[in-house]
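User: Fold this; tokens only.

Assistant: Input:
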Amino acid sequence: MASKKKACAKAGIFSLEVDLDKDITQEKLIEEIKKLNSDNRINGILLQLPLPKHLDEHAALEAISPEKDVDGFHPINVGKLYIGLDTFVPCTPKGIIEILKRYNISISGKNAVVVGRSNIVGKPIAALLMKENATVTIAHSKTQNLPELVKNSDIVVSAIGKPYFIKGEWIKEGAVVIDVGINSVDDPSSPKGYRLVGDVEFEEASKRASYITPVPGGVGPMTIAMLLSN
């Protein structure tokens, strides 16, 4: 949240953080969201996820006005995305498409595999890639022959949340790799005792890929940029 507030300040965007108790009731949370819906100072609302386990995440997201849903998680905006209407797009998937376009990477006609089927990244990036005329496969924990799928893909988007899950040797020569994973692994040599790594074996994959995003510092900053764009 701190990085989002800092980015808003740098861009000249007014931001308001509403910090609520972790034991807040569902009713009180919905009440707070409705206050923001009716606040004319506020053009966009985002709910920091995940919520405490006793709260209904879906009900809370549905309480946000679709016109202020800058995370693109409201069912109305999700539906608009899937039928190709102009709407708020989830920030990480939107940032991935922006990266590809800024580097003039052709999407149309390419084979793409999305590893992970979350509502936040996997499903919406698949929809956006299809909108750009890619042929898209969504892979997940039950997918068989994942290495072969990856080896045949021109664009690989990994958002499964497992360190080094995608092996470098799976990457097709010249493929574009977008690593959304942010995973903590033990590292005694680090002052913090850990370091952040992606879902992809970066060193080996980078020998094969034409483009690959680093972790950290790749997709993450784009997510915040697209939040501000929304």
